[in-house]
Amino acid sequence: MTHLATQAKNRLHAVAQRHHLKPPAGNPFAKTNNGWWQALTLGRLEKMNLQSDLATLQFAEQQEARIEKEMTGIAAENEEIGRLLHIAGFGVITAVTVYAAIGDIQRFGDAKHLVGYAGMGTRVHDSGMTTHTGKMTKAGRRDLRVAMVEAAHVVANSHPHWKVELARLQPRIGYNRAIVAIARKLWLPFGTCYKAR
Q: What is the dihedral of CA 19, 21, 23, 24, to 10 degrees?
């Protein structure tokens, strides 16, 4: 739904740019600004597309709200998802996504195995006495990687400990790799909170 909403917003922005119009301040897509979009003087076909995009945006937002409400209900009923919500950076959707991807945590020995399952471990090339490490393998669950990287973005911008960690890592390895490193480190309390059952 987020992808659908983003596409509709991009098309609406394109209409405003094509006609050299400045959308309303704040959130140009808020319901209070629908009148502004509807009042634009456009050709018949372009007006039809604009109305379609506004309807698509409204539909996507309604569906997102409904899905979030359902997931909140599921999270309230599930003790394991409740545990996940205690990890920094996790919201309801991230917790449900991670739980759905992992299932029974007991099948993983430790956080290192979880990192491998998600495909977030680094490539290693060993030959004789030399060892080279590279980028992450990406040979695992994509949805799990995406959820953990999103959680890492949240904590890197809001949690004091992870802000310091990002500031320490970023000059040396760059922003994106620092975020992935933080995402890997988020697995540690995850494994602990499940093993403590």
A: -140
Q: 165: closest CA among 188, 193, 131?
A: 188
| Integer Cα distance of 2 and 14 in angstroms | 18
Helices (H), the chain: 2-18, 34-38, 44-77, 79-84, 92-102, 111-118, 142-158, 160-173, 175-195
The answer to whether the beta carbons of residues 140 and 187 sit under 8 Å apart is no
d(CA 167, CA 66): 37
- Alpha carbons within 13 angstroms on the beta-carbon side of residue 30 total 8
Phi, psi torsion values for 132, nearest 5 degrees: -120, 135
Sequence letter at residue 78:
N
Specify whether the CB–CB gap between 127 and 137 falls below 8 A: no
d(CA 189, CA 105): 13
Poorest-confidence range of 73-77, 115-119, 156-160?
Answer: 115-119
Please say if the pLDDT value at position 190 is more than 70: no
Q: Can you read off the two tokens belonging to residue 9? A: 């917003």
| Interval 162-174 mean pLDDT | 92
Q: How many CA atoms lie within 13 A of 24 on its CB side?
A: 15
| Separation between Cα atoms, residue 35 and residue 50, nearest integer Å | 12
